[in-house]
Structure formats: structure tokens, C-alpha cells
Write a structure and sequence with these properties.
Oligomer: homodimer
Number of strands of chain A: 23
CATH architecture of the largest domain in chain A: 3-Layer(bba) Sandwich
Low-confidence stretches of chain A: none
Strand content of chain A: 25-35%
């Protein structure tokens, strides 16, 4: 058998993008996947949650349309049907990835990869040879060994995406993105949701002002911050609150969303340097073994689907392309979907202060905006914040909480990548009426000069 | 009375932004408005239409939620209630502008402005003096003298925004942005809508491929292109079709949306150069009279609210600021709201070809995108097109048709302003899953290099 130019293990948003890009450059590519195209993102992460959140949003629209002149009766939500729509979405995307692989002449084998050495990977009976190896094996939900963690009503994000009926009560352990999105979803469809978070605030990447507002906006969700879960029983979750008092809360179902761990099992023959965070890589995503790259969750650098995809591009560029790209982490946007949406990119004011970077900032209320008012009304809440370098005016961070945040934030990533200044964004013409205009307004709030 | 630094006539998105910016710089500003804060945009344009379109969208969600698991019965739409919500939105925005004027210490007088000379404006009995004068008087709907144009069932966008009950049939004369948005709105709430357009295609600023798809997506609207209306009777609109045959179509109501004309009445004492298009201005928005500026629709350069606001900034910069800003028209985004949304910025492929600019382009289907699929399904339609200079790769145009277009397009305006290349956007990290990712995908479709 002819050797491949690259073998990629894992067909998630890291692996399949690496395969697509390398294939597009005319390389001989083998993609190995143990389960299905799309990885966690497509099958048990980004996509299914966004599909469900969209269903829930439609449900809230039907329930709350009165003020807009829309009336209806007997409004009901079928989780089973929402799950079926979600399933169709996933299947279509998997087919899309399959098509992409064919279009880019990528060979695909399904099965467990066994690493013989850094040039040989065995799947089933066959040993494949390759010049380069890309590890894109992802991560798995971490379940801490709390007493009761293995009870049948304790689920991770994997299990909860298979439910056909919503629980009456749900306790979410962990207030990161995954925990908050599920909390938002289930509270939107009528479940009584409680979130228990060990840290003093939810969503650690978020500006402090924003996470406070986020909690307030998720008004049907109860948050217990600074609390440590001690035990899960069939009826309740027991925890110690921020003041050191023992508490318990009844829960028909428990979602464990405290984090994810890199999938590094079987890597021993590769003799890789692996830290607690994951496989150690340089700015080209290269491991300590020169022909082996590790991209996405498995290196623990940035556990986001789009980070994995970008890492794929940088790695492929370093193997087969211009070699002039480096992985940068300063302009990677994140988004939290649900009601409300939030998104951010770059430094928060708090991070800047911790790093000793002098900044000027401004925050504007979304309710000053025409489109926001037309769609949300004057009691709606939302925020836009821009963080810029105090001396140069270069934009270091943009933070959004409110409708369309996830679709507006790419312009912020672009601004930070291009090192645009507040003054530059002030000269950009934004379409009216759009919520995005607030980004320009916020830049003017930082600096009135014309 | 102490002289003002600047008198601004017209409190629309040109005038009130000019007042706000000049006030923020500490200038003595007088804003004269004959009607209400916000101009056409707030009161009879951008904002009311977006409010109504949002109501209609909620109505469609209630009607079509079944596939997402959302069920309800007796779905109805009250135009009167949607109009009431619209009215509240407008009132809140007017209040917001009033607040902005106070915050920036702008004096405001309501009444008709009479121009004494380029330094003196009379309102009522009072003559105000000023160093500079900014004309921001806007435009009015143009009603061509077609027989029957003055019948009571023939409305312009002003009148149609006051309806309390939807007509059963509506004929829209003119398929520009205004015509298409009203066509979309009324067809969404159940009116049978026909659009008659004189040109061979609707939405002249749109890429040809996109306007075709737009017509297809507005599937309950009938379009007659290349047709010239000859007469309106109480029962019908009579026109000559593209083949020269006489036709007529029954219409309970007619919307006249063939264009708008600059409001230049009363300008004679200023001795301005005025063309058919409007007041002639240079790149600083200065007229032939050195201390008089004309911004927004009245100069006819770009009849968009956000163009007017940007012109306000450039004019104020030239009067009181750095003077280093110039009005540029190459990166002004436009958006068409409704279902579907569309937006664009910069050159279309057709315009580039007309101007002899060599370009490379790519178009991608939105149904390849995860979020689009989750929310619209695999039968949904949408397009993204990027136009770049063939030699340099500099992005010259971005065109979107599909959900969130209006909120994504600012990043395209920013890219064109910053003269980013396709390669630069390929290195930007877009959030996953978002429809915006398609912009990056389209850049990769233009150029696979890494």
C-alpha cells in the first residue's frame, strides 16, 4: 500500500477540517474515525444543542407573541419531536461531511486507531503508513467521583441529548457554557432548573458585569454559586454552600457538566509529552515528535469546535502549505446560545487588569438601539462592551449579550486580528437598523473625537 | 442672542447624529425639526417596517413551529396590535433621541425653517445665527403622475404604515427595498401581493443570482418584471408587460414605491447648486457655499439612514474635528429585512465587470452550514458570495441572503474599509455554529491555499 501524506485520527471539527484542507491541497489523506462523522460537535455538542435551543425559542415565540399581535391557544412543546428534528439536522451534517471528504479525495476508515509508531496506524487488520500524523481525538465529559455520580438519573451532555421527555426538575452541576445552555433550554420548555457552580460566578470567560446580567436574564433558573456538591442521592443533590452550610435540593434529574478531559488513551507508543491539560503542542500544533500534530480538545488549549478547525488549518499549513501561519488565541470568539445569547472575543476588562494592560472601555445598553427595541421592547436587557488599549486605541476585546450576539461577533474577531483601533471601527458604516450598530456606538462612547 | 456654531435642519438619522456628534465636541448646536425626532427613518421608514416584519416573523413561527415540536391552534394576527407595538417602539426611540440631545446640550426648536441666508435661519418669529449650516431635510416619496395615482386606495409608505386592517390584495408598484419589504410583510400575514417593476429585476443593488433567489423565496408574492404601469382604477392596476401586451390586475390596495425625491423646497436664498439628484456636495459633504453642508437623502448620494449618519460624522469632522475624514461610498452595507433577509456591501460581480475590475468570486449555499440547517432545515435556501480582486485578493464585495444577514454584514463593511484580503479573512476564527462561518468558507472556496 502506498503511504499517505497524512493520517488524521478523529473526524470532528478538527479532524475533518484538516482532512478537507489537506485534500484540497492535493495531498493523500486518510481519516480514521471510531464512531461517526462530525465528532462531539456535530453529534453530541454544538449542533444538537443549537437545534434544541432553536425549537425552544420558537416555543417561547408562540407563547409570548401577544405583544406583537400574534395570538394562539393550546401551545405545547414536544421534546420527542424537537429531538427528531435535531436528529435530522445531525444526519444531514454527517452526510455533508461525507460529501466533503469525497470531494477532496480523502480516504476514510471507520474503526479504532491503534498507534504502532508515529508513522503507522492500525485499524482492524490493516496497518497504514504516513509521513504525518494528526491527532484529533477530542475529549470526553469528566465525571468527578462524587458519591452517587453513577446513579441512573445522573447524565452528562451525551445522555441528556437522548431524552424523549423533559424532567420536572433538573439540577445542573457546573455553570460553564454547557451547563448554562442546557439550563436555558430546559427552563425555556418548563423544567424547574437549578445550577450549582463551585466558582463565585458562572461562565468564567465572560465579563463580570455580563455574567451577572446573564443570571438575571435566565430568570427561571436558580443559581447557587460558590457551592461544592458532596453527594447525589436518588432524590436530591447535597452540597455545601458559600457560607459553609449543608444544603440539599430535590432533583428528578442531574446534569453533570463540570468539564471535559482530553482523549489520550492509546498514545503511549507515540512517546508524546502529555500534561494534565492534554498533548503538549507548539504554535504550529506540533507535538514533541516532529511529524505528529495534535489539534482540538486533545491538546486542551481551547476547547471550542472552531478553535479545533483553526488549529487544523494551521497544522496543515505547517505540513503542506506556506508554513507562515501560527495559532493565535487572542481573537477566538466564544458564544453562549439560548435566551439571551451572548458572545465575546478577546480580553475582558478583568483579564486586561490581571495582565497589567492599561485599557479604556465603554459599555452601552442594547435598549438604546432601534432594532433591539422593535424586537425586544424597552424592558429588554442587553449589553455591549468594548475594551481598547488605553494608549493606542487598539481593540482588545468585544463583549455582547443580547440577540444576534453569536452572528455579530465575527466582525470583532476580524477587528482584533487586523489590530483595528476604536477610531477605525468608528469610521465603518453599520447597517441601520441593526443591533450591530451598538458596537460602533460603544466605540464612540470610548472616544468622541471625530 | 449668541450665535450658534452650527444650525442643523432636520432631526432624522443625518441631522440628529450631526447634532449629537457636534454637541459631544462641545459645540453650540441648534437642531430645527418641523415634525418629530427621528425623521422618516424612525417614524415612517426603517424602524416601523422592522417592527412590523418582526411581528410577522413571530406569526410565521407560531404557524410553522410543528417541525420543531411546537404546536398551537387558532393562530391569528392582529395588524392593529402590531401597529400599536410599532407605535410604542417609535415613541421610545423619539424619547431616546430627545435624551441624547439633552445629554449633548443641543438646543432644539420645532417648526419650519426659513433660510434667510447661509448664516441665518428663521423659525417662527425668531432668527437664529450660526457659523455653519447643515441641511438634513431628507426626502419624500415620489408619486409619478400616473392616471389614478391620487385615488384613496393608492398609498405611499407613509400611509400604509397607518393601516389597522390588512387588505386582501395589494399591488406594489416598484420592486426596490421599500416595495419588497412591504410585499414580504403583507404576504407573511396573508395578503395576496403582486409586485410590478419597470426594470428587468427587483432590488437593483443586489447580485443578479441573489435577486432571482429572493423572488423565489418570496413564494407567495407574484412578480411582474419589465412592466410599465399606465393607469390605476378603483378596482385594478393596468400595465403593459415586458412583451408589450396590456394587462390588468385587481387590487384592493396599491402601494406606490417607485422612489424618493430630495426635500429642497425653500433652499433658494442659499444659492446652492442643486442637480436632479439633490444638493451637490463634495467628499466632505460641503455644498458650493463653504459654510453649508448637506447630508443624507437631500444630497441623493446614498439614500440610506446609515449613510446619512456617516455623512453627519464626516461633515462634523470637517467643521470641528480632525478634518481628515472623507465620505467613502465603497463600503456602505445595505439590508433587506423580512423573510428571507438579505444584505450586501461593496461591489457585485456585475458592477465589477461593468467597471472593468478583474475579480475572482465564489458562492456557497447556506444549507451546507450547521446552524442554518438546525434552524431552517435542508430545504432552506440561502447564499453567500464574496467578490475579491483577481490579482491582490482584496475583498471588494460580500453578499448574503438568508437569516442574520443584516447582523453579519458589518464585518464585511469592516473588511472592505480595512482593505483586508481573502487570505486575511481565512485566518479569522469564526464562532461555531454560526451562519457567519459561511463567509470564511466562501473565502476558502475562492482560494484553497494555506
Amino acid at each position: 500500500m502506498e503511504a499517505y501524506d497524512v493520517i488524521i485520527v478523529g473526524a470532528g471539527p478538527g479532524g475533518y477540517v484538516a482532512a478537507e484542507r489537506a485534500g484540497a491541497l492535493g495531498k493523500r489523506v486518510l481519516l480514521v474515525e471510531k464512531d461517526q462523522f462530525g465528532g462531539v460537535c456535530t453529534n453530541r455538542g454544538c449542533i444538537p444543542t443549537k437545534s434544541l435551543l432553536n425549537s425552544a425559542k420558537q416555543y417561547r415565540h408562540a407563547l409570548e407573541g401577544g405583544k406583537f399581535g400574534v395570538h394562539c391557544s393550546d401551545v405545547s412543546f414536544s421534546l420527542a419531536e424537537a429531538m427528531a428534528w435535531k436528529g435530522e439536522t445531525i444526519q444531514t451534517l454527517r452526510n455533508g461531511i461525507e460529501f466533503l471528504m469525497k470531494a477532496n479525495k480523502v480516504d476514510v476508515v471507520f474503526g479504532n486507531a491503534t498507534f504502532v509508531d508515529s508513522h503507522h496506524v492500525q485499524v482492524g487488520e490493516t496497518v497504514y503508513e504516513s509521513a504525518y500524523l494528526v491527532l484529533a481525538t477530542g475529549s470526553s465529559p469528566f465525571v468527578p467521583p462524587i458519591p452517587g455520580h453513577d446513579l441512573s438519573h445522573v447524565l452528562t451532555s451525551d445522555g441528556i441529548l437522548e431524552l424523549q421527555q423533559a424532567p420536572k426538575t433538573l439540577t445542573v452541576i457546573g455553570g460553564g457554557v454547557i451547563g448554562v445552555e442546557f439550563a436555558s433550554f430546559f427552563s425555556m420548555i418548563g423544567t424547574q432548573v437549578t445550577v450549582i457552580e463551585m466558582m463565585p460566578e458562572i461562565l468564567p470567560m465572560m465579563d463580570g458585569e455580563f455574567s451577572k446580567l446573564m443570571r438575571r436574564e435566565l430568570k427561571d433558573v436558580t443559581f447557587h454559586l460558590g457551592c461544592k456538591v458532596g453527594e447525589i442521592t436518588p432524590e436530591a443533590v447535597k452540597y455545601v454552600d458559600a457560607k459553609g452550610n449543608s444544603q440539599e435540593i430535590a432533583a428528578e434529574m442531574v446534569l453533570m457538566s463540570v468539564g471535559r478531559r482530553p482523549n489520550t488513551a492509546g498514545f503511549d507508543p507515540l512517546k508524546l509529552e502529555i500534561s494534565r491539560q492534554g498533548v503538549v503542542v507548539d504554535e504550529f500544533l506540533r507535538t514533541n515528535v516532529a511529524n505528529v500534530y495534535a489539534i482540538g480538545d486533545v491538546n486542551g488549549k481551547s476547547q471550542l469546535a472552531h478553535s479545533a478547525s483553526r488549529m487544523a488549518e494551521v497544522a496543515v499549513s505547517h505540513m503542506f502549505g506556506s508554513r507562515n501561519q501560527r495559532m493565535r488565541y487572542n481573537a477566538i470568539p466564544w458564544a453562549v446560545y439560548g435566551q439571551p445569547e451572548a458572545a465575546g472575543c478577546g480580553l475582558t476588562e478583568q483579564e486586561a487588569s490581571k495582565q497589567g494592560i492599561p485599557v479604556k472601555t465603554a459599555t452601552t445598553q442594547m435598549r438604546a438601539n432601534g432594532r433591539f427595541l422593535a424586537e425586544q421592547g424597552k424592558r429588554g436587557s442587553g449589553l455591549v462592551k468594548v475594551v481598547a488599549h488605553a494608549a493606542t486605541g487598539v481593540i482588545l476585546g468585544v463583549h455582547l449579550l443580547g440577540p444576534y450576539s453569536s452572528e455579530m461577533i465575527w466582525g470583532a474577531a476580524e477587528a482584533i486580528e487586523a489590530e483595528l483601533r476604536v477610531q477605525d471601527v468608528k469610521e465603518v458604516v453599520f447597517p441601520h437598523p441593526s443591533v450591530s450598530e451598538l458596537i460602533k456606538d460603544t466605540c464612540f462612547a470610548i472616544d468622541h473625537a471625530l
